[in-house]
Amino acid sequence: MAAFDTVIRHGTIATASETYKADVGIRDGRIVAIGEALTDATVIVDAAGLLVLPGGIDSHVHISQPSGEGIVMADDFESATRAAAFGGNTFVMPYCLQQKGQPIREALKEYHALADRNCYVDHSFHLIVADPTDAVLGQELPALIADGYSSLKVFMTYADLALSDLQILNVLSVARESGALVQVHAENYDAIRFLVDRLERDGNVGPYFHAKSRPIPVEREATHRAISLAELVDVSLVVVHVSNRESMEEIRRAQMRGLTIYGETCPQYLVLTEEDLKDLGMQGAKYVCSPPPRDFASQLACWEGLQQGVFTLFSSDHCPFRYDDPAGKLTPRARTSFRWIPNGIPGVETRLPILFSEGVSKGRITLNQFVALTSSNHAKTYGLKGKGAIAVGYDADIALWDPKRKATLTQANLHHGADYTPYEGIEITGWPVATMLRGNFVVRDGQLVGTKLGGHYVNRAPR
Ligand code: URP
Ligand code: ZN
Ligand code: ZN
What we know:
The protein is of the alpha/beta class. The chain has a domain at about 55-370: Metal-dependent hydrolases (TIM Barrel, Alpha-Beta Barrel). Helix content is about 30%, strand content about 20%. Helix 3 links the parallel strand 11 (about 125-130) and strand 12. Bound molecules: N-(aminocarbonyl)-beta-alanine and zinc ion (ZN) (2 copies). One zinc ion binds near residues 185, 240 and 241.
């Protein structure tokens, strides 16, 4: 019997801290050796000229999430995880949304049923707490956290989702007691409602005014407030999808004061601006997400946050809706006001190429920062054991990258369920040419070779 099932030969390994040439030996789905001239294998993969990176972990995606009456998300677990694999990812963390009045366990049962035997890559769920009743806070959440659902998201905006400060404090307190990490969507709901009403009153109803209804102070104020609430409870917090300097600096200030506040940003805040929402017709709806893309100065601030370690997580916030579809961006009501355009854009497949190309290839971040920001830090932050590194004992979740390969992002070449990409036409240098999950190829040379039985649900211990 050969020593290894598979050996990846002649590649250049990059981790969050080092880059070096070595072969990788894989047995029973795990990395069991890293060294020179490993040859005793059933399968030898020649990775000459390629980078051997841990598979991407996208810890912020929305899949099959209920999104309002008549609205349907463009991806189910099959299409989202297929797109994820083509984009060099081996793990996604979608949200399980509790609807008002619903026990979270019931929502989880539904999500597990949707995901089970339907995923090309591994997955684990964050819980969106929309209705923190006494029963949810006192019994359900502590039990679920103990069962391995150790990350929660709370919203400070959106009808049916926004929690009061008191409710957020209560959730933070349960998280502290039970060992969960809370993410916050930081935008001030009342300020947005005030601005939406005023814009509509003045007849400003096109997609562009979505950005005008959620200006930077709306996000900055909520970021500051969320951090203050976490400080009161003495608990860690992740501020997700940060879009601008003022919010980034709130997080940096908190970190410098010794608080454990994590920051996340996303591709839309690096390469899009609110100008993309400007269209006399409805095309701007393709870029409607919250917080909205800002301006060039905000893009620079987000790069600074990534470069200086204020942001340790780079996620897609994949939240796809079809554009040309009454169940997507063009709902009948969306034509009457931006207020009704479903919020969210696709991005699970394009996250890694965009950061590699704009970051590594253009010299803004190192290859090791890329690995940390897109894989290792997600595993560490959310407690994914044996994931996020090329190291002995870790799962052989690997993406092979051609750092010189050039491509143009275009809808025709993507694999998600949406009918457009907001990143159409972006020129990329550096491409994931193969994705391997626990030692088995899922995508190789542009072909899907894995099965939707391959991705597993992964449990996480409380913190
Ligand atoms: O517009 C966005 N970001 N939609 C996804 C939901 C969320 O807030 O993350
Ligand atoms: Zn959010
Ligand atoms: Zn999101």
